[in-house]
Amino acid sequence: MTTTEPSSEVEDWATDFDILDSEYVADPAMVWGELREQCPIAHTDRYGSTWLPTRYDDLAEIAHDVERFSSRDIAVVTPGRELNPEATMMLIAPPITSDPPVHTWARRMLLPRFGPSRIEELTPITHGLADDLIDDFIDAGRADAAQDYAQHIPVRVIARMLGVPLEDESIFTRWAVTILQNGFQNIEGATDAVMEVIQYFGSKLDERERVPEGERPDDLVTMLVEARHDGDPLDDPHRIGSCFLLLLAGIDTTWSSIGSSLYHLATNPEDQQRLRDEPELMTSAVEEFLRFYSPVTMARYVAEDTEFAGCPMKQGDKILMAFPAGNRDPEHFDRPDEFVIDRQRNRHFAFGSGIHRCLGSNLARMELRVAIERFLDRIPPFELTDPSAVTWSGGQVRGPRRVPVRW
Question: Global pTM?
Answer without folding.
Answer: 0.92
